[in-house]
Amino acid sequence: MDISLNKSTKNTLFQKIEQVRRRQGKVQDTHITLAHGSGGKAMRDLIDDIFVSSFDNPILSQLEDQASLNLSNLLQQGDRLAFTTDSYVVDPLFFPGSDIGELAVNGTINDLAVSGAKPLYLTCSVILEEGLPVEILRRVAKSMKAAANKAGVQIVTGDTKVVHRGAADKLFINTAGIGVILAGVSISAHNIQPGDVVIINGELGNHGTAILIARGELALETDIESDCQPLHNLVETILKVCPQVHAMRDATRGGLATVLNEFALSSNVGIRINEESIPVREEVQGVCEILGLDPLYLANEGKLVVVVARENAEAVLSAMKSHPAGKDACIIGEVIASPPGVVFLKTAFGTERIVDMLVGEQLPRIC
Amino acid sequence: MDISLNKSTKNTLFQKIEQVRRRQGKVQDTHITLAHGSGGKAMRDLIDDIFVSSFDNPILSQLEDQASLNLSNLLQQGDRLAFTTDSYVVDPLFFPGSDIGELAVNGTINDLAVSGAKPLYLTCSVILEEGLPVEILRRVAKSMKAAANKAGVQIVTGDTKVVHRGAADKLFINTAGIGVILAGVSISAHNIQPGDVVIINGELGNHGTAILIARGELALETDIESDCQPLHNLVETILKVCPQVHAMRDATRGGLATVLNEFALSSNVGIRINEESIPVREEVQGVCEILGLDPLYLANEGKLVVVVARENAEAVLSAMKSHPAGKDACIIGEVIASPPGVVFLKTAFGTERIVDMLVGEQLPRIC
């Protein structure tokens, strides 16, 4: 030892060293305390025990303040980087078919996927309310890891903040993500042309309805589950048969209606959809009728809206149907030249109505 | 027009089109409502008015769900991508010398910079409490833009969530960031060697003290301001004279003590620092004595801890002093072989004490 200490100090020292050695990176508490956000020992133990051990990959385990990723490897997979972020504040944390952890992984994967990117790396930043049971956090982290594994992405860096009881509601998660976009793919809400065809991969409104029911505001028992799922493999399947997809977006908050309005405004076109073609489960339709909701505005977490040139529609549709996430795919509408910026619905009765952007809020904290 | 409508519908339609045309992307409300997180029209107006107009860059203005960045351009600047994230929950939102917006930009820039990366692109994801004055959000966004401009980074994508009153405290921000690490640079907490020298760029504890005083818990008036500043130009200056820096980290939450403990544990070395060499303002020392705090654990938002081989120490020190963010740089300690994992402080009285990792929480919501 290259320092001089008196005997008592040395004893303290050796106890301390022993203590450091014994540190197992285990959380000592059953509930989150402010110390878990301190930057100190409790936080380090929490990170080791919950996140590093769950997410388990060599980049994260370095525990640097940033992940380091080889750029040449990225460039071999495509020519552009896609970069996105989303915060997740869904309430409740667990709901039929999914939970905030899976949602935070799949949601960000889908924001990458709809650009045609192969999702590769995610971050995980949590804001915890003092008093949150550690077991809840552990379940959420496991769910994130399972979703990341299933999708083939790695969670490579993160952050943990704790706020006083009452300054946040249990747990918020932010995930940012990066992926690589294949050369030649150019998907944008600005690319849509009159004559294009609008396709969706399945039933609308399951996620929103599952959350509503999980909140117990309705005395209903149904088997409706969130459609939370990663869409990048479905997107890959589509791009194989049609690299020149015009626009693609997942219909989350604000639902199909919001995506179509964004498309119509960005590309300065009109869009006309047919109510009879839009797949909605009977139970979802029922909940909507009881509550005065419109399934077109209900949130989804695994629904892909694809706009392609008419001559590619059949090939894309049949490719989508060949994939489990697209087996219920169908054509729901078409793009028209005018009036630009407006979405119409042809109702089951043969009339037409305008489907405006969502004004006000249907269901807060849906994702 | 290529659709058939009756006269009344047509009138409604034209009014609607007129309405779409008139939409100026202006926030109509003085306070945040749940509708601003709906995914619909109010959210779009908020994003246009507050974020897109403030951050003002062509990548963000696309309003896709992800930013698209040219990989070849990135590869020209270095060989690795650095990727990081941090959530900011600081309370209060505005404090002497800085605010949550500038902090959210500089904090993430610094997490990139300490890997030797040139910071390039940031995301901005906000969680808003219902009832937050829109004016507050506007000020914060302007502050983020100013910080981004000053540092030469772009905010290229984002997300907005709103939660009920009481489910979050005013405003939380997450920024994720990417940057490019120059070829040949390898900075890591695992690289530290016995004999290395520890350098810091200036006074400790100003940020933590400024927050404390801003909270009004002390009836003190001082001119202490947060040291919030971007460190990437200082890092660049250091790397020019010494590309082989061993370790570098910014001393934020948990302060200098936490960074040094992380270094000691990661590299399995001991670290000895000298109290007399550590720059602390008299007022900060005074606040610490009154409150029983230790400046070694106080948060900073512009303090860089650099570990270099002894033979490089003088060159690095003089390079740091040549830069405004490093003018008060000094050597504060050295790395020893044993006992590994332990940090010692040589006090002003000539005794030695162990500087442990922070146990418990000094100041919650400091960043």
Automatic annotation (TrEMBL), chains A, B:
One Pfam family this sequence matches: AIRS
CDD domains xrefs: HypE (cd02197)
Residue span, PurM-like C-terminal domain: 193-344
InterPro entries given in the database record: HypE (IPR011854), PurM-like_C_dom (IPR010918), PurM-like_C_sf (IPR036676), PurM-like_N (IPR016188), PurM-like_N_sf (IPR036921)
UniProt GO BP: protein maturation
Boundaries of every PurM-like N-terminal domain copy: 66-181
Coiled coil: none
NCBIfam families: hypE
PANTHER family (alphabetical): CARBAMOYL DEHYDRATASE HYPE, HYDROGENASE ISOENZYMES FORMATION PROTEIN HYPE
Family designation: Belongs to the HypE family.
Name of this protein: Hydrogenase expression/formation protein HypE
Lineage: Bacteria, Bacillati, Cyanobacteriota, Cyanophyceae, Nostocales
